[in-house]
Amino acid sequence: MTVYTIFLYVGIAGLLLTALRFFFAKPANVLINFLQNFIGSLFIFSGFVKAIDPLGTSYKMHEYFEAMHMEFMNPLSTPFSVFMIVLELALGLAIILGWRPKLTAVLLLLMTLFFTLLTGFTYLSGYSPTLTFWGLFFLAVFGFAVAGIAERAFGRNAGLGLGVLALVLIFISVKFTHLSFAANFSETKMKVTDCGCFGDFIKLKPWETFWKDVFLDVLIVFLTINYKKISPLFTELPRAILVYGVTTVSLIFCLYNFMWNEPVIDFRPYKIGSDINEMRKVLKPEVKDYVFIYKNKKSGEEKEFKTAELSAITEDWEYKDRKDIVIDPGIPAKITNLYVFDQEHVDITDSLLNNPDYSLAVISYKLSKACDCCFKEHLNDIAAKCDKAGIQFYAITSEDPEEFRHKHQCAFPFYMADETPLKTIMRSNPGLVLLKKGVVVNKWHRKHFPTFEELEKTYFSATKH
């Protein structure tokens, strides 16, 4: 799925809602009503796929705070993410219902501008801005200032026209002429590699997310200017009940999906039934060519040579640099960052994932933030009984486990891995994963750890017989 298919499905939903509205009670302005339904449907869809996994959004906001040197916001990343998701769902329904149109339209615009800031930071950090970029930036600021003056002097239409013209010129300059950036785009330069607009449901390319939000900015600015033409649905009391009701349900749904359970729908590559070994395989190798840059010792001229042309290089040229050209990006593995090490820093990932029998892995991305009582009241007991039954039991964390092990008397091995894949495997800290030959058989949130007897009855006894 791409951003185009998302817009297509949301557009169809908007058209259906507009048609129903037109059939039952003709709206004052069909175009404005379609924009209500289109924007509202997109916000509801975007909010819902994030509400399924609020911690995923929280981790993404944590990345942004780190990249923007706003580390003081890190403790607030989870409540901020939940608030943003609930607000997104509430505003999506509110604009469709026409509840408090001016307030809703302004809040939608502020939220979309916030998203544009994040996606713009993600995308533009992959470039190296030059003087041309700053020239275009100040030209854009000047253009919007002129648009504001024109609106004040000649009316709203003149200001809106000049503002739209400025946006069109910026889009053409950046998209088609690349005048604003002298350096090529590189994903490795980006401070945050994925905006998280649709959670783990779909990963959009950086330029797709940025221009999607710019497009939405234009639509919502138009809707905000014409907020008086927004057609309300139902009377004020039912609209208010629906908006406040959805807000309450959305908050409970968000909390359920990380405080009380794993996400109800798992979009991650470690969902139940996934074969991690298969997920780690490259589906189609990347194809590259190389361009070598040489400098002429006599003239100082720099020239690029492809691999096939290297045999023609004489002693008059000296090597300066090399550029990689991706001919075919291929299809990378869905899991690229899972590596588990023992206490001697030996990579044991393959041996753990190729165990033909059942094994239990405790996942704790940070032991310092883990629920201590889970180890004392549940995991230590399961580990001891697994040891007697000959079932492999171990923990994986990103921190030095020795102090924690002694403090909580954990008589099972602890292995090390990077924090990022551990956060992806489990949204609970700690969480429990049942594996068999690299396949995720089941996962349990810390609120729902099974007993060893339950595990034996459901899984281990079947193996014995």
What does this structure look like?
By secondary structure, the chain is an alpha/beta fold. It has three domains: 3-126 and 185-260, no CATH class; 282-328, no CATH class; 349-464, 3-Layer(aba) Sandwich (Glutaredoxin), CATH 3.40.30. It has helices at residues 3-24, 30-51, 54-67, 77-97, 101-124, 131-154, 156-177, 206-225, 236-260, 276-279, 349-353, 372-389, 402-408, 419-425, 452-464; strands at residues 287-296, 302-306, 317-328, 358-364, 392-397, 414-416, 431-436, 439-444. The strands form two sheets. The chain has a five-stranded mixed beta sheet, with helices on both faces. Mean pLDDT is 85; it is low at 177-183.
Name some characteristics of this structure.
465 residues; alpha/beta; Glutaredoxin; 3 domains; three-stranded antiparallel sheet
SSE arrangement:
Elements: H1 3-24, H2 30-51, H3 54-67, H4 77-97, H5 101-124, H6 131-154, H7 156-177, H8 206-225, H9 236-260, H10 276-279, E1 287-296, E2 302-306, E3 317-328, H11 349-353, E4 358-364, H12 372-389, E5 392-397, H13 402-408, E6 414-416, H14 419-425, E7 431-436, E8 439-444, H15 452-464
Parallel strand pairs: 4-5, 5-6
Antiparallel strand pairs: 1-2, 1-3, 4-7, 7-8
Helix pairs in contact: 1-2, 2-4, 2-8, 3-4, 4-5, 4-9, 5-8, 6-7
